[in-house]
Design brief:
Blueprint (H helix, E strand, L loop, with lengths): L2 E2 L17 E5 L7 E5 L2 E5 L5 E2 L3 E8 L5 E7 L4 H9 L5 E6 L2 E7 L7 E4 L4 H12 L7
């Protein structure tokens, strides 16, 4: 589930590759927006997304506070306030994270995001594969 976390910087930033489409989108309960499939559920994602690839400074697999592998997405400073305000308005509502049109995770927003978020519940292999797909970089072990 996504959660807001402090940034963890290990070396140079690895933003998404040109052409890789990463999005943080609100799920529209009224069915207005772009239809997508997630697991066995049909969802509609609002346009425009709250955040997209251009807002991301760094993507990497990390160990979360519970020792589990997560994919950390750290946002560019100029996007922090917009993402914070947008997620603050979405508390209690669902948001989706997608990469290249494929929904990876849907979760209920528990609180506003700030400079980064973690996607937890992934296997180490899945987190590393996503990191490589998004950034083109082989994951760096801490």
């Amino acid at each position: 589930m996504p959660s807001a976390t402090p940034a963890m910087v290990l070396g140079a930033d690895r933003p998404p590759l040109p052409g890789v489409d990463v999005r943080l989108s609100a799920v529209d309960a009224a069915g207005k927006g772009v239809p997508v499939q997630w697991q066995d559920e049909k969802l509609t994602l609002r346009e425009p997304p709250l955040a997209r690839s251009a807002d991301i400074a760094d993507v990497r697999s990390v160990q979360d506070e519970y020792g589990q592998t997560a994919l950390q997405i750290r946002y560019r400073p100029e996007a922090h306030q917009r993402i914070h305000d947008g997620t603050a308005a979405m508390v209690g509502q669902r948001m989706a994270i997608s990469v290249d049109g494929r929904v990876l995770m849907v979760a209920t927003v528990q609180g506003p995001f700030a400079e980064s978020m973690n996607l937890s519940g992934l296997t180490g292999r899945d987190a590393e594969a996503l990191e490589k797909h998004i950034t083109g970089s082989v994951p760096v072990k801490p």
